[in-house]
Amino acid sequence: MHPYEGELLVQDKEERRCLASKRPIIYHDPSPREEAQTGGTEEWASDREQDYPDLQVTVEQLIAEGDMVASYQRSMGTQQGDVEDEQGVPATGLATEWVSMGIFRIECGKIAEIWSVADDLGRLQRLGVITDEELQSATPLATPSA
After folding, report:
1. Is residue 5 part of a domain?
2. Is residue 78 part of a domain?
3. What's the whole-number mean pLDDT along residues 33-58?
4. What does the alpha-carbon distance between residue 44 and residue 117 come to, in Å, rounded to a whole number?
5. β-bridge mates for residue 115, sequence order
6. Chain centroid to CA 107: how far?
7. What domain count does the chain have?
8. SS3 at position 67
9. 5 falls in which pLDDT band (50, 70, 90)?
10. Residue 92, domain member (yes or no)
11. Smaller CB count within 10 Å for the chain: N or C?
């Protein structure tokens, strides 16, 4: 028997759908200018491990309802990699901490979609990449209305 023939004999409709669905994860970028993208999860995780080889992530809050899961996590690590250098963030050798939140849609027991935001500005400030003076002198792109 071919390895997949047994899977096709599954009687449960939901199980058959899950076996047939091997789609990549859809990542929704928080920037309104970026389209949702698929794939790249492994590359992102590898890049983050290179940037922060001692990275520790602690999930502090986890809420689930239906097929959706929300998480709030705290990340800590020493920025040593050169992947962020490609984005203009040189390796600093400094330990830093930041928080992030994610919403995950689960399908067939696996993550199907991700929406996430992280405190990248705070992380870059703590790394010394962006100074308080630079923030004060930055020209606003938008002015809040009264």
Report:
1. no
2. yes
3. 82
4. 14
5. 28, 103
6. 18
7. 1
8. coil
9. very low
10. yes
11. C
Coil, strand or helix at 89: coil
Range 52-74 average pLDDT: 95
CATH of the domain at 124: 3.10.450.50
Residue that is written with structure tokens 């058959």 in the block: 16
Residue 53: Cβ within 10 Å count: 12
Residue type for position 112? A
* CA–CA distance, 75 with 96 (Å, rounded to integer): 8
Q: Where are the beta strands (DSSP E) in the chain?
A: 26-28, 37-38, 56-65, 68-78, 95-107, 110-118
- Residue (of 138, 94, 117) closest to 27 by Cα position: 117
pLDDT digits over 64-123, tens only? 999 999 999 999 999 998 766 667 788 889 999 999 999 999 998 888 999 999 998 899
The answer to whether position 127 is within a domain reads yes
Domain that holds residue 81: 13-131
At 7-21, the pLDDT tens digits run 444 456 666 566 655
The tally of CA atoms less than 13 A away on the side-chain side of residue 99 is: 5
Instruction: State the Cα–Cα distance between residues 125 and 120, nearest whole angstrom.
Output: 8
When comparing pLDDT for 76 and 146, which is higher? 76
Q: What is the pTM of this model?
A: 0.74
